[in-house]
Amino acid sequence: xxxxxxxxxxxxxxxxxxxxxxxxxxxxxxxxxxxxxxxxxxxxxxxxxxxxxxxxxxxxxxxxxxxxxxxxxxxxxxxxxxxxxxxxxxxxxxxxxxxxxxxxxxxxxxxxxxxxxxxxxxxxxxxxxxxxxxxxxxxxxxxxxxxxxxxxxxxxxxxxxxxxxxxxxxxxxxxxxxxxxxxxxxxxxxxxxxxxxxxxxxxxxxxxxxxxxxxxxxxxxxxxxxxxxxxxxxxxxxxxxxxxxxxxxxxxxxxxxxxxxxxxxxxxxxxxxxxxxxxxxxxxxxxxxxxxxxxxxxxxxxxxxxxxxxxxxxxxxxxxxxxxxxxxxxxxxxxxxxxxxxxxxxxxxxxxxxxxxxxxxxxxxxxxxxxxxxxxxxxxxxxxxxxxxxxxxxxxxxxxxxxxxxxxxxxxxxxxxxxxxxxxxxxxxxxxxxxxxxxxxxxxxxxxxxxxxxxxxxxxxxxxxx
Length: 466
Fold this sequence. Notes:
Layout: H1 2-40, E1 45-48, H2 49-55, E2 62-66, E3 68-70, E4 75-79, E5 82-92, E6 102-107, H3 114-123, E7 125-132, H4 138-147, E8 153-161, H5 168-205, E9 225-230, H6 234-242, H7 244-260, H8 269-298, E10 303-307, E11 310-314, E12 319-323, E13 327-336, E14 342-350, E15 355-358, H9 365-389, E16 394-395, E17 400-401, E18 405-408, E19 411-414, E20 418-425, E21 430-436, E22 444-447, H10 454-464
Parallel strand pairs: 1-2, 6-8
Antiparallel strand pairs: 2-7, 3-5, 4-5, 5-6, 7-8, 9-10, 10-11, 11-12, 13-14, 14-15, 16-17, 17-18, 18-19, 20-21, 21-22
Helix pairs in contact: 1-5, 1-6, 1-7, 6-8, 7-8, 9-10
């Protein structure tokens, strides 16, 4: 019960992390969109660039700049081999000397080629938000100096072109969503406090074993309980703790990109393809991680019981009973992620051809695998012995065991030809190795995780006396 309780604490912490992170991202986007709408909702004021540089913008931010010319050198930022951002120095038309400092930089939208920059210069009009004393960033500033030799960089104004007015309904939805996920995080905080400091003494003192509530299986004797397991493995806890953060970041960035891209941009196939790829590359992993997190949350209710006659998996919504008689084979594989995080998966193949995977979310996957093998191997061993008595070969996929020897893809060796059957460490995992008298190389070498019913095979070989 204490183990399950600790996992519930991680559940509430996951709510806090996911709600808090996504709420902050959505709130940041909402603030930006509100600021942009407040500025561009005021009709733009038309000013020449010379007037702006000499007298200033007179407190206006939404401005249509006229009578300007671009410098020869500009900086481009690429994304997916497309121009995503452009910084172009601008000077008063007909008044720029070769060594005049760069005081104004323009960030146009929808620029994908040099011809697009020339088209903006020819139309002699560009509307956007004028930022005063705005920083370009050290990388952009360095590049601007390189492509404009002889000019001093003294940027006072940055004009960011704007072609859209943020939708008020969208902004309201962003604020509402931020508040909603923020409440989700707050619920996690309250629940965590309640569970940690209020509910723990009562639940710890009056714990009721969930096995007491399981009724007898209809029409079948499950036999006595041998082992019980609950979720809370290392990989399960990692998902509960870590998944909310990257999921919120990926989905938040996806919402940000979708909300920031002007509608006119989607009319250009080249740019629309780039933005679509960016949305898919961010939103896809975000959704995948979110689904994995929800799956991990649902797994908090799962319970696994190893009975004398079979395996019972309780997922809360359904209970799956597997009788050992219906199991044809089993395999167990382990993946070592770190020294302390090892993922163990036990897979059962049924006589019907179906496959049953025991989730790695159950606490101590190695103990789960051993508990299943302790009960299942005797059943499979007795079945194999009965087949051999009836002169029916027993298949282990990679090798077939017969009364007179072993067979592999038509190659038969008699028991007197078998030199040894051992389990050897290959450096990364155990392998079943079969050697034949007079041969230097092994007759068969199969990794244990890929060898079904490996323990049954080894016991049969040992029992055969060869």
